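Subject: Sanity check before I submit

Could someone independently write out the structure tokens for this chain? I want to compare against mine line by line before I put it in a report. The sequence has 473 residues.
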Amino acid sequence: MTTDCCAATAPHVVIIGSGAAASAAALRAASGGARVTLIERGTLGGTCVNVGCVPSKIFIRAAQIAHLRVHSPFDAGVSAHQPVVNRALLLQQQQQRVTELRHAKYENILEGNPNITVLHGQARFKDASTLTIVETDGTAQEISFDRALIATGAAPFIPEIPGLSDTPFWTSTEALVAEQLPEHLVVYGGSIVALELAQAFLRLGSRVTLIARSTLLAKDDPLIGETLQRILVDEGMRVLTHRSLRRVAYATVGYTLDVDGETIHADQLLIAAGRNPNTAQLNLAQAEIQTDARGAIVVDDHLRTSTNNIYAAGDCTAGPAFVYVAAAAGTRAAANMLGGDQRLDVSTVPAVVFTDPQVATVGLDAARARQLGINVDTRTLSLEHVPRALANFDTRGFVKLVAEAGSGKLLGAQVVAPEAGEIIQSAALAIHSGMTVHDLAARLFPYLTMVEALKLCAQTFSKDVTQLSCCAG
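---
Independent answer below. Compare away.
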């Protein structure tokens, strides 16, 4: 009788989407006693596992291996050779792992949970307590709910360029499943996806021209984009910054592109100009859910929208567009839908760009800190002063630390280095813990490791590290 009573009074939570935020929320809500209905209009698992993080990192890793077989700092002693790249076999390997992870981490878990019902179709709000679901077979039904979570993610932004819509251009989705490598690929964009894929295609054998409307990674410290641009150009990429794609024409021989008056011919075009939230088809106005100018859903730090019983999480909101942030947001939103009081703290979010070398950042850069009225002190350490980088014969990049002047409190870190993503979390923990650069300089770091670069950079606030012995504390 107790079970029946609880089932009868269990809140009905509907979740729109099935990616990281949605799945984390569904599992948390179900474990908290809610009756959960999850609605997905496409493939279960969302962007990350299907067309984002997982396939892109496999693709990038394969490209890195191909590159190392041709170019490495040890070519004099370990003979290099030009590999034969079989893109079809690489794609098969990539997609097999995608399928495995989707089954293991999404389909099997969601569909195997007795408290979660999965529906396939497009959801639209009828009002603040009712959804209309048009299922894949065309049938429609209405579902009432107590609480709802919108976790519909984002999709590639397609700029309005004359002629573009009449061409078979790629977004990252098509690029990652292409069976053939283009001879000449033009990539339009200067941010994360554009840079990662441009370098990967270059390393797999395509000639690549990258066109950026501003600088590379323009939202970050300028030194990052400058450093990365030099590295990409050294690898053979043509990089055009502060340039715009004005017109696109396509014929059987390929693309003709007008780039501020210069004509560029290519056999494939990849548009990687950012992403927009997937909210246009949800009929949000019927539930009085506020969005910003981009269509991103406005939420508070408890993930609640302008309508009290409706929450949102992940890339459909204006928060940091990272899968780990989405999953954390989904978990907290679910807890709050069941009466909890959990905040999503995004004050210290580490970010990684999976180029080679990688770019990793956390906290404030110097410009942002000054905008906030903070007087800062910064130090930049070239990797030429990092023993592990010297041992690897790879000193591309730097570590930069931003501290509050006077107190020395660590405010941010920017890293360009091989495996920078493995370094940045130590800086994130230091910032979260309120450490100063002097605290960081005094900590014990293992030798020879790349993460020791954080300690060495912290030491430069008070010492000349070029005058220290190895492992000097």
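---
OP: Matches mine. For the report I'm noting this point. Residues 2-68+77-156+276-337 form a domain with the FAD/NAD(P)-binding domain fold (CATH 3.50.50.60).
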